[in-house]
Amino acid sequence: AQKITQTQPGMFVQEKEAVTLDCTYDTSDPSYGLFWYKQPSSGEMIFLIYQGSYDQQNATEGRYSLNFQKARKSANLVISASQLGDSAMYFCAMREANSGYSTLTFGKGTMLLVSP
Amino acid sequence: ETGVTQSPTHLIKTRGQQVTLRCSSQSGHNTVSWYQQALGQGPQFIFQYYREEENGRGNFPPRFSGLQFPNYSSELNVNALELDDSALYLCASSLGGSGTAPVNEQFFGPGTRLTVL
Questions:
Q1: Closest CA to A37 of A82, A77, A5, A83
Q2: Separation of alpha carbons B14 and A38, rounded Å
Q3: Which chain A residue shows the shortest CA-CA distance from B47?
Q4: Does the CB of B56 have a partner CB in chain A at under 8 Å?
Q5: What span, in angstroms and rounded, lies between the C-alpha atoms of A87 and B99?
Q6: pLDDT tens figures, B2-54
Q7: N- to C-terminal Cα separation, chain A
Q8: Counting runs of H as helices and runs of E as strands, what totals does chain A give?
Q9: How many other C-beta atoms are found inside a 10 Å radius of the C-beta of residue A103?
Q10: Between A and B, how many CB-CB pairs are < 8 A?
Q11: Taking CB atoms and an 8 Å limit, are B100 and A47 in contact across chains?
Q12: pLDDT value for B66
């Protein structure tokens, strides 16, 4: 079973508008972390935002916010006031604490294109 | 920039050959994780090294092996290359080998693009 599901292969948004990228996850571990990364065409994974499973409030980092709905197991990324430089692949990832080490499990990603 | 470097940037090999990819971790980090990202997919965990020992492995065959050195830099070795090994290989460094807290956040390098012909 997929641990991280991103159902939107691609999204289009106009500059200055807000966009929501969907992510659902599956885990039986009560302690986990959820991440969003941006990957431009250069390949480097750029950390955007983090949400811990026990965090009471939704995470925010500048123009990025995470809409965390624990009961629904969803962690959607909201980008406000989109910019042309936001065009990239976006990955949702989950970290579970395995025995002795922690790894990131990634979804398949969503390609975001921002038009002028 | 994260301070994590990888070399080489690009590499072309033929089937059956062997390849070594290198990663220098961010200063102060003692853990390196390697991921394989096939075209159009998300990264998949290969293995993790913590203080020079492999302490976790994903679903990859033994021909994928690694090393971590006393300065915490790391190598990924792939033997008997197959066409499906063509991918972007990412390494990520972090502090500590376990846990889910942001302190264990992984910082990624720019990756090595491997093409197997």
A1: A77
A2: 31
A3: A103
A4: yes
A5: 32
A6: 789 999 999 999 999 999 999 999 888 888 999 999 999 999 999 999 889 99
A7: 38
A8: 0, 12
A9: 24
A10: 80
A11: no
A12: 96
